[in-house]
């Protein structure tokens, strides 16, 4: 019933929408890995800007993602504060120098530490726009078939597509059961104490889990009747061959990975150190 | 044909229809076959009973049917109760992409009504139930006994309006039947002695008393359905809404449930049933709301609904085989014939 | 018929299991009042599923479920913790192969063993895999990650101890033992 809060596929006609799901997946994976590996601030900043531009091109509106973005910001802030509190000297250790900005004993703030935290934030946010882009522009069944194309076994890919297909169904079940339980008298809001809330949640979760587990039996019988799994490979109904645009985008992803490798060489390591 | 774990018949359908094994095993005979029996027509004389169109064009049969129809008397007209639930311009849109959201529903449900809600899937029937029970927000206003329902929480509404969902597995959360039926009372802090009393009483009404010490996992689907009805009944709401209460039930259980609901209704409870079963609608309910594409297109008696070709088409209802039977034998008034049959199924005054 | 690789039932169990994981993760967190610490029913559920369907399903549901949920809720996946959840499912699933919930069996002795194993699994996942992953992949400071790991180990072990045992017992109870019923 909370349709809008789910991050789901929105059909559209932009360049990004038209790309093959496999292309988008490869791009997303390669670039995410690249961003994970490197701590080169210049690279991270450029990828951030680039992915934000891509979001614009795909016609994604703020209100579609505002909920998620707020979540991420909160999450990122909590995490950096935690990182800072636990080891305020981490930046100094990484960059090998100490430029004090604010003297406060254990919590002394150094330029190095701030720079490190900046990098942490960049890493959180640089690939987020790309993921959002992927989710909003890719048809779920194409996503599953694209997993198969990059080499993941078709059984696992099919399991993923099953999961995506059943998330809305189980969500509806959850709301129905939750409503019925509330009608019986289970109090789930903040008004009830912790013990009652746990019991109330269990009263919803158990019928949800057990009835969903029953589905497993029914569906697997249906699939067996259709001879799923009897061969090693499988063709996909939604399969589309690569177009020139797809090759170009894949090439771009590979170029980015190569750049990271080069930067690693230039920086003699993961970190871009402006303090040396 | 299977009964109590044994195969009791292995024949072709036409033979089965000529015997009375069906009803003995709790399976309903087709209505047109029952109508022929009621009109004292000897089924052994008819070779092919498998469909209305296969019946012989015999004027004697037509006469017997017409005679029978003419001898049926009209039942007493119903007295109308006070307004219990009133909906004004009610509707709900799930999301912007919905093609036909429920809208502008205006109706008054009276105390003691026995109502059926019909219409295609997606027409808005379940949405209406959810609105009444408070599971989703609504446009417009809903009033129960004059009070605005928006002031009541879901739990409070449940004490006035009980809702029995279609899938019993979504309602059941306890292991033992007793605990499941007692749950609502326990959550309202009723004392154990009173709980035992009320639960046993309700179990007896629902025909579940012999199973009172059983775990729910041992029950059939139909029995689980009855447990969910019992769990709602025990809270003694003024009005009960049931979503497809007889789906998946054999005729014997279906009759038990419907008779018991009719009994409740005669004692004063207001009952609303969402159903696809036209027979149920005709036989038991006195008033029908028909929905199509998010709109209330009819608020009338079941017989008037089923005999209006425009409404039948708009709401995609299935015509009863009784109507086909009457047409097949060119009876004067097919609608009257159907009505006569329905009236003949009413329990007689002196019981 | 001997099948190569995953059976159909396992594939479906992974798919549906991951879907249930996502819904539970999204909607059934109960805050405890302690900041950033919630009661997550996902882990008891994962324990149940791994016990019924085995280590491979346990690993896959943990992996796909956690990854999908991160993806859909936060827009990014925290791979080290995804792996940790997957390993949790794997270890519990390994022990699960010795149990027989499908026939209503869950004795006290089995309950105790189950909980010992789940605590060990939690330690491996949150005190070893997650922190090490955080350091290697995300270059986070050591004491932060190990403290986080310790907190997770304790909370999740307790949640599985209480709610997980209840869930497994309830599931076994839905499977009726032969010959135990009479009409009264």
Automatic annotation (TrEMBL), chain A:
<feature type="transmembrane region" description="Helical">
    <location>
        <begin position="25"/>
        <end position="55"/>
    </location>
</feature>
<feature type="transmembrane region" description="Helical">
    <location>
        <begin position="114"/>
        <end position="136"/>
    </location>
</feature>
<dbReference type="InterPro" id="IPR003339">
    <property type="entry name" value="ABC/ECF_trnsptr_transmembrane"/>
</dbReference>
<dbReference type="GO" id="GO:0005886">
    <property type="term" value="C:plasma membrane"/>
</dbReference>
<feature type="transmembrane region" description="Helical">
    <location>
        <begin position="67"/>
        <end position="86"/>
    </location>
</feature>
<keyword id="KW-1133">Transmembrane helix</keyword>
<keyword id="KW-0812">Transmembrane</keyword>
<protein>
    <submittedName>
        <fullName>Cobalt transporter</fullName>
    </submittedName>
</protein>
<keyword id="KW-0472">Membrane</keyword>
<dbReference type="Pfam" id="PF02361">
    <property type="entry name" value="CbiQ"/>
</dbReference>
<feature type="transmembrane region" description="Helical">
    <location>
        <begin position="245"/>
        <end position="266"/>
    </location>
</feature>
UniProtKB/TrEMBL annotation, chain C:
<feature type="transmembrane region" description="Helical">
    <location>
        <begin position="145"/>
        <end position="168"/>
    </location>
</feature>
<feature type="transmembrane region" description="Helical">
    <location>
        <begin position="111"/>
        <end position="133"/>
    </location>
</feature>
<comment type="similarity">
    <text>Belongs to the UPF0397 family.</text>
</comment>
<keyword id="KW-1003">Cell membrane</keyword>
<feature type="transmembrane region" description="Helical">
    <location>
        <begin position="45"/>
        <end position="66"/>
    </location>
</feature>
<protein>
    <recommendedName>
        <fullName>UPF0397 protein FC39_GL000539</fullName>
    </recommendedName>
</protein>
<dbReference type="InterPro" id="IPR022914">
    <property type="entry name" value="UPF0397"/>
</dbReference>
<keyword id="KW-1133">Transmembrane helix</keyword>
<dbReference type="Pfam" id="PF07155">
    <property type="entry name" value="ECF-ribofla_trS"/>
</dbReference>
<dbReference type="InterPro" id="IPR009825">
    <property type="entry name" value="ECF_substrate-spec-like"/>
</dbReference>
<feature type="transmembrane region" description="Helical">
    <location>
        <begin position="6"/>
        <end position="24"/>
    </location>
</feature>
<keyword id="KW-0812">Transmembrane</keyword>
<keyword id="KW-0472">Membrane</keyword>
<feature type="transmembrane region" description="Helical">
    <location>
        <begin position="78"/>
        <end position="99"/>
    </location>
</feature>
<dbReference type="GO" id="GO:0005886">
    <property type="term" value="C:plasma membrane"/>
</dbReference>
